[in-house]
Amino acid sequence: MAAHSTGVRRLVVVLIAVLCVGGGFRPRAAQAMRIVSLVPALTEMLFALGAGPQVVGVSNFDDYPPAVTSLPRVGALLDPNMERILSLRPDLVIVYGSQTDAQQQLERARIRTYSYRHAGLAGILSTLRELGAAVGRAHDGERLAGELQAHLDRIKARVAGRPRLRTLLVFERDPGSLRGIFVSGGVGFLHDMLGIAGGSDVFADVARESVQPSIETVLARAPDVILELRVRDDLPPARLGKERSAWMTLSSIPAVKNNRVHILAGQYLVVPGPRVGQATEAIARALHPEAFK
After folding, report:
1. 282, 264 contact by CB (below 8 A)
2. Nearest to 42 by CA among 267, 209, 231, 272
3. What global pTM score does this model have?
4. Considering the chain, what percentage of its residues have pLDDT values greater than 90?
5. I need a labelling partner for 182 at 20 to 30 A (CA). Which of 58, 188, 204, 213 fits?
């Protein structure tokens, strides 16, 4: 139960980041040498850029890459520990765009901030470039963004010409039941990933990142595929089988009739960071396995 609660808390943090839209950052000429990150997805980006040695503090929810486990913890979205942050003497602090109070305190302390507001896959690519420039690794930012775009393009080419399966993309529900279902809406990086992977979002007409549909609405949308993304990657096969069987009660849905209910496990699947290429490919392989033979 404790492990599940921790996973849910981490997912909440991830999804709050997903629900931020728009934004940007103007990097200054000075290279950041001591960085504190309150955003796990951007912590991953920093390490992917090669700026890991410059990171001196991370959020309470950071657990990837493994090197972050030895770094000081400084709170998170709702509870940043400003005293702890300042004690680390950062010259750059990465914050969520909604953390206006924290930004103001840091500005008064003459510490610059990178305000993170993400809107989709395009935002991940631009953030890689901006963050690279902010930490003195502009070349690496351009390189990583280019590699990620190339990966996404390869996936898109693999599934080109194949049927765009009407998909219900689920990222949260209560364990062992069909209560508390949250699915991807028509905007956001999960929606973008599904489109590149060869799926058609059954809630594409809802201009939100997150939708909480009723069972009646799920039945009415009649998806061809139900694809569920699970944060925890340590669930035993028997548990995964039980979770999958919960959908069998909706026997009239084409996805259930045709045995097209898939559960993918791993936190990387719902993190808007440098591993979105891997996550998109995992979705594509579930939707169109024949394209990867």
Report:
1. yes
2. 272
3. 0.87
4. 83
5. 58
Would you place residue 235 in the very low, low, confident or very high pLDDT band (cuts 50, 70, 90)? Answer: confident
Are 40 and 64 a contacting pair, CB within 8 Å?
yes
Classify the C-alpha dihedral 211-217-223-225 as positive or negative.
positive
Please state which of the ranges 38-52, 149-163, 240-254 shows the lowest mean pLDDT. 240-254
Neighbours of 53 (CB within 10 A): 11
Q: Which residues pair with 230 in a beta bridge?
A: 265
Which token pair is 223? 């998806």
Share the mean pLDDT of the chain: 90
pLDDT of residue 117: 83
SS (H, E, C) the chain: CHHHHHHHHHHHHHHHHHCCCCCCCCCCCCCCCCEEECCHHHHHHHHHCCCHHHEEEECCCCCCCHHHHHCCECCCCCCCCHHHHHHCCCCEEEEECCCHHHHHHHHHCCCEEEEECCCCHHHHHHHHHHHHHHCCCHHHHHHHHHHHHHHHHHHHHHHCCCCCEEEEEEEECCCCCCCCCEEECCCCHHHHHHHHCCEEECCCCCCCCEECCCHHHHHHHCCCEEEEEECCCCCCHHHHHHHHHHHHHCCCCHHHHCCCEEEEECHHHHCCCCCHHHHHHHHHHHHCHHHHC
pLDDT at 15: 46
* pLDDT at 184 exceeding the cut of 60: yes
